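Justification of resources, computational component.

The compute hours requested in this renewal are based largely on the per-chain cost of generating structure records like the one below. Each record pairs the submitted sequence with a full C-alpha coordinate output. That output is archived, and it is also reused by downstream analysis tasks.
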Amino acid sequence: MILTVTPNPSLDRTYEVPALERGEVIRATGERMDPGGKGVNVSRAVTAAGRRSVAVLPLGGAPGALIAELLDAQGIEVVPVPVAGATRSNIALAEADGVLTKINAPGPLLSAEERELLFDTVRRQSRDADWIACCGSLPRGLAPSWYADLVARAHAEGARIALDTSGPALLEALRERPDVVKPNAEELAQAVGRPLATVGDALKAAEELRERGARAVLASLGADGQLLVEGAGTWFGSARVDAVRSNVGAGDSSLAGFLIAGGSGPRALASAIAHGAAAVGLPGSVMPAPADLNPAAVTVTDRVPLDRELTEPVS
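The structure output for this chain reads:
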Protein backbone atom coordinates (compact mmCIF):
# COMPACT_ATOMS: atom_id res chain seq x y z
CA MET A 1 0.00 0.00 0.00
CA ILE A 2 1.20 3.51 -0.82
CA LEU A 3 0.08 6.19 1.61
CA THR A 4 -0.04 9.73 0.27
CA VAL A 5 -0.02 12.94 2.30
CA THR A 6 -1.29 16.10 0.61
CA PRO A 7 -1.24 19.03 3.06
CA ASN A 8 -2.76 21.46 0.53
CA PRO A 9 -5.22 19.56 -1.72
CA SER A 10 -7.43 21.26 -4.28
CA LEU A 11 -10.47 20.94 -6.46
CA ASP A 12 -9.03 21.32 -9.98
CA ARG A 13 -11.01 22.64 -12.93
CA THR A 14 -9.28 22.22 -16.30
CA TYR A 15 -10.52 23.96 -19.43
CA GLU A 16 -9.21 23.08 -22.90
CA VAL A 17 -9.03 26.19 -25.09
CA PRO A 18 -7.81 26.78 -28.67
CA ALA A 19 -5.50 29.61 -27.53
CA LEU A 20 -5.24 31.91 -24.55
CA GLU A 21 -5.92 35.54 -25.50
CA ARG A 22 -5.72 38.05 -22.68
CA GLY A 23 -8.79 40.26 -22.33
CA GLU A 24 -10.92 38.20 -24.73
CA VAL A 25 -13.90 35.89 -24.22
CA ILE A 26 -12.57 32.36 -24.78
CA ARG A 27 -14.89 29.41 -25.41
CA ALA A 28 -13.61 26.16 -23.98
CA THR A 29 -13.63 23.07 -26.17
CA GLY A 30 -13.57 20.72 -23.19
CA GLU A 31 -13.63 20.79 -19.41
CA ARG A 32 -12.91 18.52 -16.47
CA MET A 33 -13.22 18.68 -12.69
CA ASP A 34 -10.78 16.54 -10.71
CA PRO A 35 -9.52 16.17 -7.17
CA GLY A 36 -6.09 17.79 -7.17
CA GLY A 37 -2.86 18.16 -5.29
CA LYS A 38 0.36 16.24 -5.94
CA GLY A 39 -0.28 13.52 -3.37
CA VAL A 40 -3.88 13.12 -4.52
CA ASN A 41 -2.63 12.60 -8.07
CA VAL A 42 -0.13 9.99 -6.86
CA SER A 43 -2.98 8.10 -5.17
CA ARG A 44 -5.05 8.32 -8.35
CA ALA A 45 -2.17 7.01 -10.46
CA VAL A 46 -1.43 4.16 -8.04
CA THR A 47 -5.09 3.16 -8.03
CA ALA A 48 -5.31 3.38 -11.83
CA ALA A 49 -2.38 0.93 -11.91
CA GLY A 50 -4.42 -1.54 -9.89
CA ARG A 51 -2.60 -1.02 -6.60
CA ARG A 52 -3.93 0.13 -3.23
CA SER A 53 -3.46 3.70 -2.07
CA VAL A 54 -4.72 5.59 0.97
CA ALA A 55 -4.89 9.38 0.78
CA VAL A 56 -4.55 11.51 3.92
CA LEU A 57 -5.55 15.12 3.34
CA PRO A 58 -7.08 18.03 5.25
CA LEU A 59 -10.54 18.80 3.88
CA GLY A 60 -12.96 21.60 4.60
CA GLY A 61 -16.09 23.20 3.18
CA ALA A 62 -17.99 22.25 0.02
CA PRO A 63 -14.82 21.82 -2.14
CA GLY A 64 -13.39 19.40 0.43
CA ALA A 65 -16.58 17.34 0.50
CA LEU A 66 -16.59 17.17 -3.31
CA ILE A 67 -12.95 16.02 -3.38
CA ALA A 68 -13.75 13.17 -0.99
CA GLU A 69 -16.74 12.20 -3.13
CA LEU A 70 -14.73 12.22 -6.36
CA LEU A 71 -11.89 10.18 -4.88
CA ASP A 72 -14.29 7.66 -3.39
CA ALA A 73 -15.88 7.21 -6.82
CA GLN A 74 -12.40 6.34 -8.16
CA GLY A 75 -11.91 3.66 -5.54
CA ILE A 76 -9.38 5.60 -3.48
CA GLU A 77 -9.48 5.26 0.28
CA VAL A 78 -9.69 8.75 1.74
CA VAL A 79 -8.77 9.56 5.33
CA PRO A 80 -9.91 13.16 5.78
CA VAL A 81 -8.53 15.48 8.43
CA PRO A 82 -11.36 17.96 9.12
CA VAL A 83 -10.31 21.62 9.00
CA ALA A 84 -12.30 24.79 9.55
CA GLY A 85 -11.23 26.55 6.33
CA ALA A 86 -12.49 25.64 2.87
CA THR A 87 -10.25 23.54 0.63
CA ARG A 88 -8.87 25.59 -2.27
CA SER A 89 -10.10 25.50 -5.89
CA ASN A 90 -7.58 25.78 -8.76
CA ILE A 91 -8.03 26.54 -12.46
CA ALA A 92 -5.93 25.25 -15.38
CA LEU A 93 -6.18 26.47 -18.99
CA ALA A 94 -4.80 23.93 -21.47
CA GLU A 95 -4.12 25.31 -24.96
CA ALA A 96 -4.18 23.22 -28.11
CA ASP A 97 -0.37 23.48 -28.51
CA GLY A 98 0.19 21.93 -25.08
CA VAL A 99 0.89 25.16 -23.16
CA LEU A 100 -0.71 25.12 -19.73
CA THR A 101 -1.63 28.17 -17.61
CA LYS A 102 -2.47 27.46 -13.97
CA ILE A 103 -4.08 29.62 -11.31
CA ASN A 104 -3.53 28.13 -7.86
CA ALA A 105 -5.30 29.43 -4.76
CA PRO A 106 -3.33 29.67 -1.47
CA GLY A 107 -5.43 27.23 0.54
CA PRO A 108 -6.88 27.44 4.08
CA LEU A 109 -5.07 28.50 7.23
CA LEU A 110 -4.48 25.45 9.44
CA SER A 111 -4.52 25.85 13.21
CA ALA A 112 -2.00 24.28 15.59
CA GLU A 113 -4.61 21.68 16.56
CA GLU A 114 -5.28 20.80 12.92
CA ARG A 115 -1.53 20.51 12.27
CA GLU A 116 -1.10 17.98 15.07
CA LEU A 117 -4.20 16.07 13.98
CA LEU A 118 -2.64 15.75 10.51
CA PHE A 119 0.60 14.40 12.03
CA ASP A 120 -1.30 11.90 14.16
CA THR A 121 -3.45 10.72 11.25
CA VAL A 122 -0.37 10.03 9.13
CA ARG A 123 1.21 8.09 11.99
CA ARG A 124 -1.85 5.88 12.43
CA GLN A 125 -2.26 5.20 8.71
CA SER A 126 1.44 4.53 8.03
CA ARG A 127 1.56 1.19 9.81
CA ASP A 128 0.54 -0.77 6.68
CA ALA A 129 2.31 1.42 4.13
CA ASP A 130 5.18 0.31 1.90
CA TRP A 131 5.86 3.96 1.07
CA ILE A 132 4.63 7.33 2.29
CA ALA A 133 4.55 9.92 -0.49
CA CYS A 134 4.53 13.46 0.95
CA CYS A 135 3.70 15.85 -1.83
CA GLY A 136 2.99 19.44 -2.75
CA SER A 137 2.98 22.88 -1.26
CA LEU A 138 2.23 23.66 2.36
CA PRO A 139 -0.93 25.58 3.32
CA ARG A 140 -0.85 28.62 5.54
CA GLY A 141 -0.22 27.65 9.14
CA LEU A 142 2.40 24.99 8.36
CA ALA A 143 6.03 26.13 8.70
CA PRO A 144 8.66 25.17 6.08
CA SER A 145 10.01 22.66 8.62
CA TRP A 146 6.71 20.71 8.64
CA TYR A 147 7.86 18.15 6.08
CA ALA A 148 11.16 17.71 7.95
CA ASP A 149 9.20 16.94 11.11
CA LEU A 150 6.99 14.50 9.21
CA VAL A 151 10.00 12.69 7.69
CA ALA A 152 11.62 12.39 11.13
CA ARG A 153 8.45 11.01 12.71
CA ALA A 154 7.85 8.58 9.84
CA HIS A 155 11.42 7.28 9.94
CA ALA A 156 11.05 6.73 13.67
CA GLU A 157 8.14 4.41 12.82
CA GLY A 158 10.24 2.56 10.23
CA ALA A 159 8.48 4.00 7.15
CA ARG A 160 10.08 4.94 3.81
CA ILE A 161 9.46 8.49 2.60
CA ALA A 162 9.21 9.90 -0.91
CA LEU A 163 9.12 13.70 -0.91
CA ASP A 164 7.92 15.91 -3.75
CA THR A 165 8.03 19.55 -2.74
CA SER A 166 10.20 22.60 -3.38
CA GLY A 167 11.78 25.71 -1.92
CA PRO A 168 12.45 26.02 1.81
CA ALA A 169 10.25 22.99 2.59
CA LEU A 170 12.52 20.76 0.47
CA LEU A 171 15.75 22.21 1.86
CA GLU A 172 14.53 21.85 5.46
CA ALA A 173 13.53 18.22 4.89
CA LEU A 174 16.90 17.17 3.46
CA ARG A 175 18.46 17.16 6.93
CA GLU A 176 16.12 14.28 7.90
CA ARG A 177 17.32 12.15 4.95
CA PRO A 178 14.14 11.39 2.95
CA ASP A 179 14.48 8.12 1.03
CA VAL A 180 13.81 9.81 -2.31
CA VAL A 181 13.10 13.37 -3.42
CA LYS A 182 11.53 14.17 -6.79
CA PRO A 183 12.28 17.68 -8.04
CA ASN A 184 11.67 18.90 -11.57
CA ALA A 185 14.37 20.91 -13.36
CA GLU A 186 13.15 24.27 -12.05
CA GLU A 187 12.92 23.00 -8.47
CA LEU A 188 16.35 21.39 -8.77
CA ALA A 189 17.91 24.66 -9.97
CA GLN A 190 16.18 26.56 -7.18
CA ALA A 191 17.46 24.10 -4.58
CA VAL A 192 21.12 24.51 -5.58
CA GLY A 193 20.88 28.19 -6.48
CA ARG A 194 22.29 28.03 -9.99
CA PRO A 195 21.05 27.58 -13.58
CA LEU A 196 20.86 24.25 -15.38
CA ALA A 197 21.76 24.19 -19.06
CA THR A 198 22.73 20.53 -19.63
CA VAL A 199 21.94 17.08 -18.33
CA GLY A 200 25.37 17.19 -16.67
CA ASP A 201 24.34 20.33 -14.77
CA ALA A 202 21.24 18.52 -13.55
CA LEU A 203 23.31 15.53 -12.47
CA LYS A 204 25.66 17.71 -10.42
CA ALA A 205 22.66 19.39 -8.77
CA ALA A 206 21.10 16.02 -7.93
CA GLU A 207 24.39 14.82 -6.46
CA GLU A 208 24.46 17.95 -4.31
CA LEU A 209 21.00 17.15 -2.92
CA ARG A 210 22.30 13.72 -1.99
CA GLU A 211 25.25 15.31 -0.23
CA ARG A 212 22.79 17.43 1.74
CA GLY A 213 20.85 14.38 2.91
CA ALA A 214 18.56 12.91 0.23
CA ARG A 215 19.19 9.19 -0.10
CA ALA A 216 18.04 9.21 -3.73
CA VAL A 217 17.02 11.88 -6.24
CA LEU A 218 14.51 11.27 -9.03
CA ALA A 219 14.80 14.39 -11.18
CA SER A 220 12.35 15.16 -13.98
CA LEU A 221 13.86 17.12 -16.87
CA GLY A 222 10.63 17.57 -18.83
CA ALA A 223 10.81 16.50 -22.46
CA ASP A 224 14.50 15.60 -22.02
CA GLY A 225 13.81 12.68 -19.66
CA GLN A 226 14.55 11.78 -16.06
CA LEU A 227 17.59 11.18 -13.88
CA LEU A 228 17.85 8.76 -10.97
CA VAL A 229 20.80 9.27 -8.63
CA GLU A 230 21.14 6.91 -5.69
CA GLY A 231 23.77 5.02 -3.74
CA ALA A 232 23.69 2.02 -6.08
CA GLY A 233 24.27 4.07 -9.23
CA THR A 234 23.06 6.73 -11.63
CA TRP A 235 20.72 6.26 -14.60
CA PHE A 236 19.18 8.46 -17.27
CA GLY A 237 16.06 7.65 -19.27
CA SER A 238 13.59 9.12 -21.72
CA ALA A 239 10.54 8.12 -23.76
CA ARG A 240 9.09 8.90 -27.14
CA VAL A 241 5.87 10.92 -26.83
CA ASP A 242 3.79 11.22 -30.01
CA ALA A 243 1.49 14.04 -28.85
CA VAL A 244 1.31 16.20 -25.73
CA ARG A 245 -2.21 16.95 -24.54
CA SER A 246 -1.72 18.04 -20.93
CA ASN A 247 1.18 17.84 -18.50
CA VAL A 248 -1.02 18.27 -15.41
CA GLY A 249 -0.10 15.52 -12.98
CA ALA A 250 2.59 13.99 -15.22
CA GLY A 251 5.24 14.32 -12.53
CA ASP A 252 2.89 12.81 -9.97
CA SER A 253 2.17 9.90 -12.29
CA SER A 254 5.94 9.41 -12.66
CA LEU A 255 6.39 9.24 -8.90
CA ALA A 256 3.57 6.70 -8.65
CA GLY A 257 5.19 4.58 -11.35
CA PHE A 258 8.52 4.78 -9.54
CA LEU A 259 7.08 3.68 -6.20
CA ILE A 260 4.91 0.82 -7.47
CA ALA A 261 8.01 -0.58 -9.22
CA GLY A 262 9.93 -0.71 -5.94
CA GLY A 263 11.26 2.83 -5.61
CA SER A 264 14.88 2.19 -6.61
CA GLY A 265 17.04 1.16 -9.55
CA PRO A 266 16.67 1.32 -13.35
CA ARG A 267 13.48 -0.76 -13.44
CA ALA A 268 11.71 1.77 -11.20
CA LEU A 269 13.07 4.63 -13.33
CA ALA A 270 11.71 2.98 -16.49
CA SER A 271 8.31 2.64 -14.81
CA ALA A 272 8.41 6.31 -13.77
CA ILE A 273 9.18 7.43 -17.31
CA ALA A 274 6.48 5.22 -18.85
CA HIS A 275 3.83 6.57 -16.48
CA GLY A 276 4.87 10.20 -17.00
CA ALA A 277 4.93 9.84 -20.79
CA ALA A 278 1.48 8.26 -20.78
CA ALA A 279 0.07 11.01 -18.58
CA VAL A 280 1.01 13.86 -20.94
CA GLY A 281 -1.02 12.24 -23.72
CA LEU A 282 -4.22 12.27 -21.65
CA PRO A 283 -6.62 15.21 -21.05
CA GLY A 284 -6.59 17.34 -17.92
CA SER A 285 -5.14 15.46 -14.96
CA VAL A 286 -6.33 12.01 -16.05
CA MET A 287 -3.97 9.36 -14.67
CA PRO A 288 -2.85 6.53 -16.99
CA ALA A 289 -4.04 2.95 -16.65
CA PRO A 290 -1.80 0.00 -17.64
CA ALA A 291 -3.33 0.00 -21.13
CA ASP A 292 -2.08 3.57 -21.66
CA LEU A 293 1.57 2.69 -21.03
CA ASN A 294 4.09 2.07 -23.79
CA PRO A 295 7.17 0.50 -22.14
CA ALA A 296 8.71 -0.14 -25.57
CA ALA A 297 9.09 3.63 -26.05
CA VAL A 298 11.25 3.95 -22.91
CA THR A 299 15.04 3.81 -22.89
CA VAL A 300 17.18 3.75 -19.72
CA THR A 301 20.97 3.83 -19.58
CA ASP A 302 23.75 4.24 -17.05
CA ARG A 303 25.64 6.33 -19.60
CA VAL A 304 24.36 9.78 -18.74
CA PRO A 305 24.63 12.23 -21.70
CA LEU A 306 26.38 14.92 -19.69
CA ASP A 307 26.83 17.38 -22.55
CA ARG A 308 23.27 17.19 -23.86
CA GLU A 309 21.67 20.61 -23.72
CA LEU A 310 18.29 20.81 -22.03
CA THR A 311 15.41 21.66 -24.35
CA GLU A 312 14.19 24.11 -21.72
CA PRO A 313 17.23 25.30 -19.76
CA VAL A 314 16.52 26.73 -16.32
CA SER A 315 18.05 30.09 -15.47
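Residues 2-9+35-86+108-314 form a domain with the UDP-N-acetylmuramoyl-L-alanine:D-glutamate ligase fold (CATH 3.40.1190.20). The longest strand covers residues 10-17.
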